[in-house]
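note to self: dont lose this again. the chain is below, predicted strucutre after it. 494 aa total, dont forget to put it in the shared folder this time
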Amino acid sequence: MKGPTKLPKTAATALLVALGAALPYLAPGLERYRLVSSADLARAAGAFRGEPRAPLVRRNEAAAAALPPFSAPPPATAPFPGGIPARPARHVPSPRVGIEDPSGELGRFFARVALVEAGEPRALARITHFGDSPLTGDLISGEVREMLQAELGDGGPGFVLPARPWAWYGHDGIGIEAAGWTPRSPLFSPGDAGTRGLGLVSFTSARAGVRSEIRREGGSFTRAEVMFTASPAGGTLLVSLDGGPEEGVPTAAPECRTERFVASRPEGARRIALRPKGDGDVTVHGVVLERDGPGVVYDSIGANGASVHALNRLDERGWMESLALRGSDLVILNYGTNESAMEGIGGPRYEREYATTISRVRKALPGASILVMAPMDRGVRLADGTVGTLPAIRRLVAAQRRVARKNGCAFYDTFTAMGGEGTMGRWYENDPRLVTADFTHTTKPGSDRVARLFVGALLSARSAWEARDAARPGPAGEVEPPVRQRPGGARPPS
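---
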């Protein structure tokens, strides 16, 4: 009888090396020995779950025609005026690419910023940034938030999901502990396009043991808005601040609609806890955390696998109700990463779909400014071993620029600002690396660079608006949209 077969020496050695490399990922306490972070592994594994799925564009596909030139606004020459005390701010480089805004779309937002700068009581400039997987972990948006709040004041972290639908979901300065919720989204199930709120995903449960706690680390908030779906099967949602008494919020209604409950604490709170009472379905979209102004609030709403296509599959009425309740002053639409993997993307059909999204935002928020933010570069390994740009990226940038101009939106060319053709290859070879090995997702240093470029362009556009003697806002009035402080409030606008 033969004994057990022995592995060849080379195979045994390889196996031992592989086990040694894997051990830090399996054993607690050995994280510092990991070659690649868990977050980077997760991001690389799950970046493209969006619908529809299609193969990558062929490497030998011809690049799109050169992008049309534009006139960038002049760089800022003076700090913002107003009564806001000086705060330590990070260095913001002069933009290499400015924001294109021939229709003056950003004027309404800048007028709101002027109220913040003037120190108007409770004045907040609300920015809602929609995007895909590069935004999911709040890397780019987190740095933008920090820089703008350093200049204009801390208005709060903004919109936060009550649980993590993706392991790498995060929000700077926010801790999330949750258990038992069922996430629902058209990104997980193409037919599930119901009332999913601002971020394409909602969280549902009817069990009393389900919970969620959201805490602001190193800061506080004075106002928390819980956004949820009211429905015929709705149960009671229990809400508490800083471990205090729970308040029951009924979520039952004759028909499905989006509502919000507002919890306020003028002296400030650090934690909000949510749980179903167990008497019916509870569906939560997210929680908005704000501070009394003046200041900037910056929502980061990145969804893994998201695209304009997926956004348009949401229940139209429900999404527009959520937008109206949020009351944003500037909406940033930042898609294209996932579309770049779709065959033939960037034609008239795509432009019409993007225009549909813009139309919905305008109807829900007629006073808001809209900025179309182009995707970053996306690299692909070529036959000669070099890293080039996926050709679909240029088509998407050109299509989004046309859509922005046709619909009177501002436009920011992220692709060109970060360096254009072949950027991801160069950024991968940089020390420190600015992009991960998928040539798609930026590292923290790379995300910070993109954020600084964008903030520089935004502040430059603000200075140009001021220099042109744009219309000034009138006296500050009540700027909050109608809220439902207690059960039985009026239906939000549709």
